[in-house]
Amino acid sequence: MSTAHRVIKNTGFLYAKMAITMFISLYTTRLVLSALGVTDFGIFNVVGGAIAMLGFLHAAMTTSTQRFMSFYKGRGDVEKQKYIFNVSSVLHFGIALALVFILLIAGYFFFNGILNIPPDRVFAAKVIYGSMILSTAFTVMSVPYEAVLNAHENMLYYSIVGILESLLKLAVALVIVYYAGDKLVLYGILMAIIPFVIRTIMQIYCHKKYTECVLAPKRYFEKGLMKEMTSFAGWNFLEISTGMITQYGMGLVLNNYFGAVLNAAQGIANQLSGQLMVFSNNMLKAVNPVIVKSEGDGDRNKMLRTSLMSAKFSVYMSAFFTIPFMIETPYIINLWLKNIPEWSVVFIRLQLLRVLLEQFTYPIITSLRAQGEIKNFTIYTSITNIAPLFLTWMFFHLNYPPYFLYVSWIFMWVFVKGAVILFYGKQNCGLVLSEFTKKVASPGFFTCVLMALVGVVPLFYMESNFFRVLVVCTISSITFVVLQYYFFLDEMEKGTISELVGKIRKKISN
To answer: Is the overall model pTM greater than 0.90, yes or no?
Structure first.
């Protein structure tokens, strides 16, 4: 099976998972918000917000182990993969213990002057925080198993596990709807159990399926490899942790200046952007192992071609779904939720804009990690990661409105961090900036702008209703397809798509 077909097949599995989990997740959020109420939902997002961020932590930390797994799989070295799995298991167990210790200490400061929580809800908030600590530990310890699944490009099983996780979250939401006691406390406890269940399922499957999953640290241990992986994971963790601190810290700053209600608005924005970004993230998850394996196989040109292709299609997939949503946010959110927190519409639009613009350069990070020299790159990206937190505090201190949280975020994470990624892409991997402009920046920019210009036209001539939403989605989609097929897709990409469509037609006709 060719690389393109393999990527398309795995992306298909992930999209099937997304189609199921997105509906479940949106319905679950509706149930939880209705059951908890705006204040308790805001408390959960500010105190247990790290639980929502564990998906980001989980995926990002997996890249360290996956980089080594995929690199040596590209070389065909199975024995080396056994060493990598065992060293990674020991490493992430140590990281889990360290995080538990750090979070316990941080909890003292959170509940003594930092958090702005009603006095009668402090106990519930502490239970949420304790549950978050346990959830963090189990999530981190599952990283080696998820890395193995990604290195083997086993997106079918990965998708099945993802669907199961969404169903468990739905079950938790249904339980708290009918629970007569403190719903927030029970919700936090049950949400902490889910990562333990998922880790157990992954562990059993991987040990039965893959020969490199042999847990024997005494036998498969190598000091040099431990040092190399620890250094790589350490720099990677610095970048991840600064991003997490900012994501969580923004909620704390917002809470301190404006209270828990705006945390609910931020939580809704995070939920929606997370679901819509699944479209591009699924494609990246399918293509990232190919990029790293190409570097392991010594094919730098293929690595760069695949990286630029993934960046371009990441922008396309994000734009296709987020731009119509950004245009019709007020109607969609009114259709979705009963109680809409203040500032939700503005927060959602700015959050989606930030994540969309990040797609132009974010996929190139995989090439930098595959190449391996990430020290200087990580230092500068970590600075850009943490900077929005201080900018936001400064804006709020000067009495700027709440949406300046996203202004500072977009400036630092899109423009400054994007420039850092391109600089090191050129220096470390030989990325040609003119190729990036030609293959990613120009087509992506014109696609987004033209889709937005065409999509807003119905707003001037039609009343806000479901039919107008359909019209916006339809004309935006037609604009997207016309632009790609006649202007921005090259002949090879058109051929791959045509071949895929032919296969689908053949299966349907049979």
So the answer is: no
